[in-house]
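Weekly puzzle thread! Below is a chain. First person to post its structure in token form gets bragging rights.
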Amino acid sequence: MKIPWNIWKVLQSNTNNYIVIVITFNTTNIVFVLFSVLLLLFKSPLSSQKKCIIMSSSKVFLKTTTTIKTTRTTPRRQRRQRRKISSSTFKNNNNNTNNNNNMESILHEHEITDIFLDQFGVLHDGKNAFPEAIECLRRIHHKYPDVRVHVLSNSSRRRTSTLRKLKRMGFEDEWFQSAMTSGEVCHKFIEKDILNTDTNSSSSSSSFTFLHLNWGERGAVSLPSGCVLPQSKEEAIEKTTHVVASGCESMSVPGTTLGSYDRQVQNIQRLTHEEIKEVLTGIAKRCEENGDLPPKMLLANPDFVTVNGDALEVMPGTISLWYRDILNEVFQKKGEVSGGAFNADEYVVKLGKPAPIIYTTLCEEISGRSRSRNNEHSDDEKEEKNAQTFFSKCLCVGDSLEHDIKGAQSVNAKSCFIVETGIHAEELDFSSSSASGGDGDESEFEAALEAMCEKYKVASPTCTIAKFSWN
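Winning reply:
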């Protein structure tokens, strides 16, 4: 048996980190091979982190396992290095006797008709697609043609923009049945529930002024054409009746150009995070002084942070936390005087995950198309029952416990938590390595996951896998 040259190269340069196990049925070479292995093993002591190469006459496998625990005295940089957890630790939490290590096993074990896929941390890192995600969708499309795949994203952009971006990254249009973004839900909400609410009264859409917090270099997001925008920060403080949080870098002004990722945005006023807080504080104080209630914030992207390459970036969900704190500070006396507690949460309208509205909006579109094909009409009770049946066979895949997993649970859908490529990767690695009372990787991971679910007030996901991969 010949050991491949690339394996010899790895062994020669990294003998401190590898154990070689040879499986062969060729008795003529086994003495020589075993002698070589013994030389490599005795060349240096075994390290606490073992990488094991298992070679046979037909295949070569490289597998990583880790058994050492990291203490709190470990340097910060070393703690931040991602700790690869064996996929055998990722269990189906509804049945601890069956492991779901990849999408192939999940689809085999569960009755799934629809898959709702998050984008960032699942399909790509914000800049580049994950190759295993592309291959996974290709396999699902060919092996499970009856399973419908939908993109369900907290992106503040319209869904057409989302699908175009995925296509540029290498994902095929035919792999997706449809898409829904929180930006799309926000657009529909403004058109239906705000601009048309006062059609029978003396008020009109021109009496509304929208403070639209937007993106800058990433490309601006548009609002419906009937929305009136302020000319400046000062006018926003004086006239705002509705706040829309789509981005964290600027505010829209009249003439703002719909941007894209490959061209500079025109006619938009850049704002720092501190300036955003100043404008929101000014609006709250103006309303409190005039005896008015504060404007509601339409949260077009409830995510707090997102992955962008190797970093995490602030998202509009964080702005909603700032707004909540500002309202509590400004209106706390008003609540005491009126004899009732002021609840700032009532002034933040979440239009994406984990709010059920993004799920039900997509469900209504899917069921609406089905009814259209079948010429069926259903009453409300039947619609609700159909929705419950629909979500019971849905699998929601995401990397955020607070948004993807909690959102799936809000509509009683199955949930799949992505560990290694999402926003919790570093946190989970550190937690699992420092979890106490566990024996081995599996118990450490389970203890860490349980602690994180308790921290974020989320029930355990249906299943947990390392990456969105086929096998």
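Puzzle host: Confirmed. Bonus trivia for everyone else. Residues 316-338 form the longest helix (23 residues).
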